[in-house]
């Protein structure tokens, strides 16, 4: 079941236990808002509580979960940063607290909705408590949300607002936000205002309203380099420097991008899927998709040479007075003379 469907069900059929795995600012906020709304506003001070396990104990949260609602029908208890479900080192959760949690899972309070947030890439499934919680709770896995699911959600959201969006505009919106759903939803509010007359979001509207970050500009710069548009890449670099972008920062972002391209190329040759790559490399699936498209014409060796050249440029930028724009021009020419 899609994450959006599970969240919709919270409103009408809340379950006693939820386990939220992974990180997504937008979906985490949606889950929190919906479980909070299970409690009438006037009762929330008494019957809604959040426990961050980096600051408090699991025992405190369990005591609250087992308490009878105070002048109300339901209590909601939220546990944040449940590191005890992973192998990560954090604030220690005692064995007695884990035993108490196992007992609670066997017989959860019928008047309590307990939501456990584990904002981690993966859980330690060897642990008894992890297996037990996953078996008893409704699991919302944010790590498995595909780009297609996010795209469909955004498109449906736009349609529900009685708007339409051009295919190129949607692709550009994803590119400029790096597929971050929270950013996309924020930008859509501005786009709705701009396009309210004909209710059609165009690529021109996205270009006008959604600013490119330095990171996105560097991704575009990488795209020009890899597409063989050497003159365009050099001109773009000059423009970024003229806009007072730090050459060291630009180079660091280029290093990061070429490192990702090299990693994707290697994993691709080992037969990994794009979704698996995203989990392995801990980057958004959209970046993997774009990287996979960009590297088709390049060998591992040529990408490795480009990455090492950027490492050398970083050293020169930090230890000499060589003109950064000259260094980049030489690098761009080197890329254009690549061996595929």
UniProtKB/TrEMBL annotation:
GO molecular function: DNA-directed DNA polymerase activity
Keywords: DNA replication, DNA-directed DNA polymerase, Nucleotidyltransferase, Transferase
Residue ranges of every copy of the DNA polymerase III delta N-terminal domain listed in the record: 18-141
Keyword Nucleotidyltransferase annotated: yes
Superkingdom as given in the UniProt entry: Bacteria
EC number: 2.7.7.7
SUPFAM superfamilies: P-loop containing nucleoside triphosphate hydrolases (SSF52540), post-AAA+ oligomerization domain-like (SSF48019)
Domain DNA polymerase III delta subunit-like C-terminal as annotated: residue spans: 216-334
Reactions this protein catalyses: DNA(n) + a 2'-deoxyribonucleoside 5'-triphosphate = DNA(n+1) + diphosphate
Enzyme class: transferase
InterPro entries for this protein: DNA_pol3_clamp-load_cplx_C, DNA_pol3_delta-like_C, DNA_pol3_delta_N, DNA_polIII_delta, P-loop_NTPase
Family: Belongs to the DNA polymerase HolA subunit family.
Protein's UniProt name: DNA polymerase III subunit delta
Species for this entry: Fructilactobacillus hinvesii
Lineage: Bacteria, Bacillati, Bacillota, Bacilli, Lactobacillales
